[in-house]
Structure formats: C-alpha cells, structure tokens
C-alpha cells in the first residue's frame, strides 16, 4: 500500500480504524536520494526532516515486504496496482490512471515485483482523507517500523507525533502486510496494538523524547533594527522577549548602520534563519543586501514586518510587494490602492482615488475584528479583541498583491481617524515566501498589549513554517471590555488552548428567553435607583409607581442611567412605554469614554411605531445601524408597556418584542461585556418634554 500524506493528515486518521498496527520508518543520512519520501518536501510536525540525518525511507523488513528492487531513488514504486481512494476523487482517479499506465509500461519492459506484495492495497491519502478510507480496504493488519540513528522508535530530533501533522508536501511512505513474526523485526520499532489506545500505552519515555525533540528546536529568528523613528532601542528588546518566551524562538539581533553611515558592510546571512523580523524604518540597504533579501523571501524564507517597518523603502519595488501596503515616504495612488473593509457590503474594497499613503489619529485602545477566522494565525484567536492604546494606521496603500487581510479595526473620526475599517493584520505571498504584516506595536505600552504579543508569535510561526502549532488564546485572556496587557517575557503563559470559562451550551437560540426559567434576577427594586448611575447628559430619572421614569432635558445630549455592574452573556427582559415622538433605547455591553463620559456600544432601539424598535444600533461608534435590514416597523404598540426580551451570547444578539423576533445578528465588532444603560434621547430646544418609563427589569446570567 502506498500512502500520500499531506500536512493535514494526522496520526489519528492513520490509526483510528486499524485494530492492530506496527509502524516502521528508516533513517538515512547523507545526501542520497530518499526512497519513500522526497527529500525536498518531507516535513514532520513543525521541524523539517529534509535535512540530514533526519530523512525517512521505508525500513528493512525481515519478511521481505519492502525489497529494495521495488523502489526507485525518487521514492516511486516500480510496480504495483493502484486503488485510489480519496475525497478528491476526480483528481485521484487521474493520478491513478497515470500510475497504472506507468506500471503497465514497466511491466511490459520486464520490471518484476515482489512475490509477497499485496497488489490490491494501494491507496493515496489526500488532505482530509478519513481513517476508514485508509484502513477500510483490507482486513489484514499493517506494520510499520520507526527507526532512527538518534532516537529508538522515533524519527530523531524532528518527531512530535501527537497531535501534529505528519508530513509537508508530497511525502510518501509504504504500508506492507504485517510480518509473519513482528517480534523478530528490527529493535527500532514499536507496535500500535489498538486504535487511539495505542498512543495511550506508549511508554512515557518515548513520548517525552518525541515532545522534547520538537520543543528543543525553537524558531531561528533574525531581528533587524538600527534605524527607526519609533525608539527601536526600547522596542527591539520587547519583540525579542515576546518571541523567546517559552523557548518559542531563538532571536539574533542585527543592527544596521546608523543614518548616513556606510551600508556596504551590512549583509546578514538571511538563509541561516527560519524567519526575518523587521523593526527597521530607515535608509536603503546596499543593492547587494536588497537582492539577497529578495532571493531569500522569494525562495521560501519567512518575513515579518512590525508597525513602522511598513514605512520603509518606498522606492524598493520588491519590498513593497512583500508588505502589501505601506505608509508615508511619499507613497500615493501610483503605489497602489487603499484597501478597506466595507461593513455595509461585507467585503474588502480597493480604492484607487488620489491621496497620500499613511495616517493615524490619537493613540487609543481599539477593537480588532477577525475577518478570516480560517487562517492558521487567527484560527486560535477570538473573533474580536481589544488592543491597548496604539497607533491605528490608516490610508496605507501599495500593490496589495497576493494579500489576505486577517483582521481590521475601525479608525474612529472622533479620535482623528479615517472613519474606515482599516487593515491591521495581513499575510502576503511573495514567490514561495510567506510574509506576516502587523501594524500594531508603536511603542513600549503598545507592545505590552496581549493583542500585539499573541498575533506576533502566531504570525511569526506561520511566516517561518506555513502553520501555527501554538495553543489558542481565549477571549477571556485577550480582553473584550478592557484591553489585556502582559509582560512580553511571559507571552507564552496566556496560550491556553482557548479554554475560557464556558458559557451555557444549552441555550436554545430558536426560542425566546423563558421567563419561567430559574436564575432571573431583578435589577430594579421598584422603589429606588440603587445599582444605577447616570452618565453623559442631564435628563432626569426618578422612581414613580414602581417604574423608572426618564424625562428629557432641552439641549442635553443623550443621557443614560447605567447599571453599576457589567454583564457579558445574558438574557434580559423589561417593559417599556415611550412617548410618541421620542427615540429611546437600552444599551447592552457598553462602555463610557474617560473624557466626557460618552456612552458607546450596542443599543436595543425603543421607538414608537412606525419605527425601528427592536433593531440594534451602535451608539457613538460611527458604525450606525448594526442591523442593516429593518423590515418590521410596527412591532412596538404605541401608548402601552411593551415587553422586550434580549439575549446576548458570544457575538450573537437576539431581540423580541412580545412574541415577535425582531433581530438575530452576529456582531463581532462590539464588546462582549459591559454595562446596561437606559437611554433618554436628547431633544432640540423648544421641543418636549417627553418621557420614557421602564419596569420589571430582570437579567439571567448565561455563564
């Protein structure tokens, strides 16, 4: 049996359906061509095995199952009959036909095949191939052997078996029938006697060797600095500490000559490193160094550009293609488009209008929103999370070739921003190389943000290896209502496989909140405003006949009576009666700005019919309506109390008025934690007064 194992194939897929199996790989040193796995593409877990002495070849077998004459130097089987099974059947059938033609041709030329080779059991494993496809076509158990010059039973320094991928690229290996006497085989093998239980009974020393051998090989990182208008002498040590935390990487710092100094002697050996990280924003390198860097990345080297490094080299064409988008340095429409996320269109747009490249407002915390959750970098991150006060770059422009924007942030005009959802995390393909571009990390406080640290570590590993094996980071640790910070040297400690405090998994999203369920808590005692505080405007709030009554104040901005407590996942109910002509609402998961106390966040709309009652508005964020479509205009019954039911769980928000569902949306851009607020809308001078009344305000925690 011949199997092709791609980077997605896992050991559990190989063994889950086998009642009993042994495995065997042989290690070959030197520069010989490798039988079984092509030398240039073999990869196990995160560590390459293409470098001597960690290559693999089908091991010798005492029964003669794997005789050398049946294998060519390129790792192809000279003669066998293929039975190709995979999820990508059309492609596999084409491969099978080609292989059968080759076999037929060789057979015609007299190429022999082993007498004991099972010609009916040849399969090709592609990405996602299920275990039953691999093992379901023969009742006979199979044997493999692991052999190594260095580690008994496991393939040398690169072995890390659980739960990593097996190979990268077009690695092949051969499956033979079980030897007649497996106990007589080479001592460098072990047996897998039951499906996943086989791994459970592996000796602890063997597993430890596998784990240690992979973990002992940190990424080899070259960090370049030397010129940067962002205090590189302070920030370089933080980048280094972030990457070296938990022995994730070994960082070598290369400091380029200063401004006006001769650059001819600056010639790092890029090829000696897995990935190059740039904290450089200064004068051009020598043409020889630029060419060497281009060759390194295009040949498959990794590159990470941090914050102001995308200001660098405006006249170096290849560099601008590597980073996708850049700022300042005279960049304009000739360099490429602006790239922005358009919330109303739910897609990225490219704007070729005239204008310079590069802009930022005040340094403030901002919410990052993942736009591609399937990418390895962002797959282990929350859908939205806060970065501490940082420069939010806007109006970047460039070639944007082969670029994928992973995350954006809204650049708020209130703080000097563009009013656009700007790219923050990006990946770019340059030749065979991978580039990770982060605009985060203006200064020391910004680099203390977990959003910066976590995305940098994950992006660097992806740029170096094409995959991310770091554990996920939970929303609880990244921060949703307040940006999380941490010591860069301890960045690895927040990587926790995403095990945040779990929410109630039994929520029935198909039904409105059940008012008869256990756990409801009253937020209003019917007599006082205890547990509430006023923010923002000057509207008056009082208690009258068991209700909270809010009265408008001429010339006042919007006013809010806010809960003292914050809430994240919950069900909320209240009854409300608003005067016709007055707009009101209830804030959920909201915050207030330090300066001026302005309340902002999602608001459940309250408005007399016909109107937008029950839809979700983003108060004071510049986003406007979160629910873009508003077909129901008459759910609210004027002149009487209306029962609202609200559910906020994760990024999902649902609203009912009475028994009619009005909203059911996903909102990854808003905070998932914050206070409640009863709004009295501002009115123009000479209008009003108007009143809005609330009663029976209760909440049920879903955590």
From TrEMBL:
Q: Which SUPFAM superfamilies match?
A: Class I glutamine amidotransferase-like (SSF52317)
Q: Which stretches does the entry tag as region Disordered?
A: 74-121, 479-511
Q: Which residues form the 3-keto-alpha-glucoside-1,2-lyase/3-keto-2-hydroxy-glucal hydratase domain?
A: 519-700
**ThuA-like domain residues:** 221-463
InterPro entries xrefs: AL/BT2_dom (IPR010496), Class_I_gatase-like (IPR029062), ThuA-like (IPR029010)
Record field: compositional bias (Polar residues): 499-508
Q: Which GO terms describe its molecular function?
A: hydrolase activity
User: Which stretches are transmembrane?
Assistant: none
Tell me which positions the record assigns to the signal sequence: none
Protein's UniProt name: Secreted glycosyl hydrolase
Per the UniProt record, the source organism is: Rhodopirellula baltica (strain DSM 10527 / NCIMB 13988 / SH1)
């Amino acid at each position: 049996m011949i199997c092709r194992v791609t980077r997605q194939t896992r050991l559990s897929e190989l063994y889950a359906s086998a009642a009993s199996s042994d495995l065997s790989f042989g290690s070959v040193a030197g520069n010989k061509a490798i039988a079984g796995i092509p030398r240039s593409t073999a990869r196990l877990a995160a560590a390459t095995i293409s470098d001597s002495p960690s290559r693999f070849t089908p091991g010798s077998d005492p029964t003669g199952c794997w005789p050398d004459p049946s294998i060519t130097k390129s790792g192809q089987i000279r003669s066998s009959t293929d039975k190709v099974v995979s999820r990508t059947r059309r492609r596999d059938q084409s491969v099978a036909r080609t292989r059968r033609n080759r076999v037929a041709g060789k057979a015609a030329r007299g190429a022999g095949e082993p007498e004991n080779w099972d010609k009916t059991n040849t399969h090709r494993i592609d990405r996602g191939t299920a275990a039953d496809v691999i093992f379901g076509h023969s009742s006979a158990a199979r044997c493999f052997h692991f052999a190594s010059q260095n580690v008994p039973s496991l393939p040398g320094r690169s072995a890390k078996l659980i739960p990593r991928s097996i190979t990268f690229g077009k690695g092949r290996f051969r499956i033979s029938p079980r030897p007649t006497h497996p106990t007589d085989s080479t001592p460098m093998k072990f047996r897998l006697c039951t499906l996943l239980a086989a791994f459970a009974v592996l000796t602890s020393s063997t597993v430890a060797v596998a784990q240690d051998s992979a973990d002992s090989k940190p990424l080899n990182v070259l960090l370049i600095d030397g010129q940067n208008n962002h205090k590189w002498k302070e920030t370089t040590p933080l980048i280094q500490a972030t990457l070296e935390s938990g022995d994730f990487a070994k960082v070598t710092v290369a400091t380029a000559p200063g401004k006006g100094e001769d650059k001819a002697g600056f010639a790092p050996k890029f090829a000696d490193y897995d990935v190059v990280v740039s904290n450089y924003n200064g004068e051009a390198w020598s043409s020889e160094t630029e060419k060497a860097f281009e060759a390194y990345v295009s040949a498959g080297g990794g590159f990470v550009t941090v914050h102001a490094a995308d200001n660098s080299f405006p006249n170096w064409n290849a560099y601008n293609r590597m980073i996708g988008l850049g700022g300042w340095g005279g960049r304009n429409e000739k360099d490429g488009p602006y790239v922005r996320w358009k919330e109303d269109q739910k897609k990225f747009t490219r704007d070729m209008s005239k204008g310079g490249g590069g802009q930022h407002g005040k340094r403030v915390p901002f919410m990052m929103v993942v736009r591609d959750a399937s990418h390895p970098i962002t797959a282990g991150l929350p859908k939205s999370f806060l970065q501490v006060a940082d420069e939010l770059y806007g109006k970047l422009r460039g070639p944007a070739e082969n670029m994928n924007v992973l995350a954006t942030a809204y650049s708020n005009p209130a703080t000097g921003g563009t009013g656009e959802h700007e790219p923050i995390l990006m990946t770019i393909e340059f030749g065979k190389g991978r580039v990770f571009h982060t605009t985060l990390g203006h200064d020391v406080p910004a680099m203390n943000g977990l959003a910066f640290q976590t995305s940098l570590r994950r992006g660097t590993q992806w740029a170096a290896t094409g995959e991310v094996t770091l554990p996920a980071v939970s929303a609880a640790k990244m921060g949703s209502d307040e940006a999380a910070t941490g010591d860069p040297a301890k960045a690895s400690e927040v990587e926790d496989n995403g095990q945040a405090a779990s929410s109630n998994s039994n929520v029935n999203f198909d039904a409105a909140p059940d008012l008869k369920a256990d756990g409801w808590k009253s937020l209003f005692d019917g007599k006082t405003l205890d547990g509430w505080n006023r923010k923002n405007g000057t509207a008056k709030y009082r208690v009258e006949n068991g209700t909270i009554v809010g009265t408008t104040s001429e010339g006042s901005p919007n006013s809010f009576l806010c809960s003292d407590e914050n809430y994240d996942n919950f069900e909320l109910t209240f009854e409300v009666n608003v005067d016709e002509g007055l707009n009101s609402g209830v804030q959920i998961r909201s915050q207030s700005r330090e300066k001026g106390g302005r309340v902002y966040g999602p608001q459940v709309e309250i408005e007399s019919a016909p109107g937008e009652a029950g839809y979700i508005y983003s108060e004071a964020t510049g986003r406007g309506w979160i629910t873009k479509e508003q077909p129901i205009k008459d759910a609210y019954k004027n002149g009487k109390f209306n029962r609202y039911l609200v559910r906020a769980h994760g990024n999902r928000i649902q609203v009912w008025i009475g028994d009619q569902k009005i909203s059911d949306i996903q909102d990854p851009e808003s905070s998932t934690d914050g206070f409640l607020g009863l709004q009295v809308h501002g009115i123009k001078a000479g209008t009003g007064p108007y009143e809005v009344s609330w009663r029976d305000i209760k909440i049920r925690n879903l955590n």
